[in-house]
Amino acid sequence: MSAVNSVIVDVQSIFRAGLIAYFNANDAIDINVRGEEDSAEGLLLFLHKNLDTQLVIMDLNLPETDGLDLIPLIRKQFRGVKILVMTSYSDYKFVGQALKNGADGYILKSNEPEHLAEAIAEIMDDKTYIAPGLHITPPNGKRLTNGKKSIYEDRFVIKQKLTKREQEVLELITEAKNNKEIAKELYISDQTVGVHRKNIMRKLGVKNTINLIKFAFENQLV
C-alpha cells in the first residue's frame, strides 16, 4: 500500500504528536501526515485546501461541532475520504452512531498499536473496521456500563443526552429568556418549551433554572 495522505483531528496536541511519532517510527504503516487540526472547522478548511487527503483520524470530543456531527459533513463534502474514529468512548451507542453517520472504522486510544495498523489497512481496502471489544449493540442485551453510572462525564457525553431541540432550548435559557420568549423564537408553544425545560433538567440532574444555567456554562454546553 502506498503512503496514505492523512490528517489527525484531536484537541490534545500531545496525543497528535505521539501519533505522528508512532507513524514515523513504524515501517509497517506508511502514513503521510499532511496536517493536524483541533476542531471541525479547522478540519473542513484543511480538506478544502488539500483535496488529495485520503484518511481522517479523528476524536469525537471536539469543540463547537462534535465528532458525531462532523462525520456526515465530511462524508457529504469529501466522499472519497476514509474516516477512522480514534477516541476514548467505548459505549456501543457512540460506535453505532459513528458508523451510521458514515465513519469507516472505530478504534479506542487504549487499543494496541497493531489494532491501529489493522484498522487503517482494513478501511483503506474499503472495509469497515471495529476494534476488538467494541459493539454496535448492547453485548448480551446489557449496557456496557452494566447499569453503573460514571461519577464524571465530560462535555461530549453530557451533550449527547440532549436532543437537538433541547440543545436549542438550553441555549436560549442561558440567555435568560422565559418560556414565552423561547416559544416565539423557536415557533413552538410555551407549553412545549416547559416540557423541554423539565426534560433538560431531569437529564442533567439539576433542580432549578439557576443551577441549569450554571451547569451549562461550567460544562461548556453552550
Overview in brief:
Helix content is 47%, strand content 13%.
CATH class of the largest domain: Alpha Beta
Mind summarizing the main beta sheet?
Answer: 6 strands, parallel
| Radius of gyration over C-alpha positions, nearest whole angstrom | 20 Å
- Taking all residues together, what is the mean pLDDT? 88
N-to-C order of helices and strands: EHEHEHEHEHEHHHHH
Strand content: 5-15%
CATH topology assignment of the largest domain: Rossmann fold
Overall geometric form: elongated
Architecture of the largest domain in CATH? 3-Layer(aba) Sandwich
Give the fraction of residues assigned to helices: 40-55%
Strands of the widest sheet, in order across it, are 2-1-3-4-5-6
Number of strands: 6
Name the poorly predicted regions: 142-152
Query: What is the first-to-last residue Cα distance?
Result: 43 Å
Structural class: alpha/beta
What is the count of DSSP helices, taking H or I runs of 4+ residues?
10
Number of self-contained structural domains: 2
Write up this protein.
There is one protein chain. A 6-stranded parallel beta sheet has the order 2-1-3-4-5-6, sandwiched between helices. The protein contains 10 helices and 6 strands. The protein is an alpha/beta fold and 222 residues long. The N and C termini lie far apart (43 Å). The chain has 2 domains: 136 residues, 3-Layer(aba) Sandwich (Rossmann fold), CATH 3.40.50.2300; 58 residues, Arc Repressor Mutant, subunit A (Orthogonal Bundle). About 5% of the residues have low confidence. The longest helix has 15 residues. β5, α5 and β6 form a beta-alpha-beta unit.
